[in-house]
Amino acid sequence: MTENHARISPALVETIAGLSAGTASTLAVHPLDVIKTRLQIHRSISRTPASGLTIFRSLTKQPQPLKSLYRGLTPNLTGNASSWALFFYFKNIFESSLRSFHNQRSDSNYVSLTPLDYFLASGSAGIMITISTNPIWVLKTRMLSSDRGAKGAYQSMWHGARHIWQYEGIRGFYRGVGVSLLGNSHGAVQFAVYEPLKNFWRNHISHQILRGDRENSQVRLGNTATLLISSSAKIIAGTATYPYQVVRSRLQTYDAEERFGRGIRGVVGKVWREEGWKGFYRGLGTNVVRVLPATWVTFLVYENVRFYLPRWWGGEEEE
């Protein structure tokens, strides 16, 4: 096998790593996503305030508890797997473009990207993914927010898609897209923290432990470091941007205008009047429990596939 045949492009590595990570994390934590979605659309003025535990109990008391816990898996799996794959693909392209731009303006052959560069690359990739996958997230939110036997509930992803197209048209698939675009700040902040921390750690390993025997890109991050760095980045980004998730969920659910108000301004105003600032953080506890395991699975799978795939393929990845 020749060297040309042995190599695999960095963009393809990122795509496969992202696809693997999105699939694994969705399968692992989907039940928690169901609970979080229902908490986000539950209004505190109800006589029987819901908690994550009460929702979990109600799901497990259904005739088919496993199906209830994994309701809406198809759109969630489709959305997450494709989103992560495309996100890392476009993120790699934008980062390469920024790196080339900086290299042209510098005497150095290689210029490290700054946190702002990672913010811009991740944010730009996120915008492209949001526009292309929002219809999937509308279907996911509606399926997760109701039981299969509930009145008006979608029986499948395709049933939901036909219903939206028939009664709401193309606009129905893009409910909440405005607030979702704002939500790209979450991923942008997350990777603006994650990538510099990862580079710092790999530089430390390369120079302090390996005595500079390997380039930064050839140093494996390690599972423990991946857990710590990804957790830190996720908590910072999640706390800063969680309110948009609540607003987005309420915009995308059934009868959104009647229940929660019209448009972003209407939903925000109604949440503030009826629930106060706590309404914007409804479900945050469950979300933290959900996102950290999902983050661990996502980044452990992503970093390991990203590191080992070029070696399994028979070549070395270039950055």
TrEMBL record:
InterPro entries: MCP (IPR002067), MCP_dom_sf (IPR023395), MCP_transmembrane (IPR018108), SLC25A32-like (IPR044712). Gene3D superfamilies: Mitochondrial carrier domain. It is a multi-pass membrane protein. Keywords: Membrane, Mitochondrion, Mitochondrion inner membrane, Repeat, Transmembrane, Transmembrane helix, Transport. PROSITE patterns: SOLCAR. It is found in: Mitochondrion inner membrane. GO terms for cellular component: mitochondrial inner membrane. Solcar repeats lie at residues 9-97, 113-200, 225-308. One of its GO terms (molecular function) is nucleotide transmembrane transporter activity. Belongs to the mitochondrial carrier (TC 2.A.29) family. PANTHER family: MITOCHONDRIAL NICOTINAMIDE ADENINE DINUCLEOTIDE TRANSPORTER 1-RELATED-RELATED. This is Mitochondrial thiamine pyrophosphate carrier 1. It comes from Sclerotinia sclerotiorum (strain ATCC 18683 / 1980 / Ss-1) (White mold).
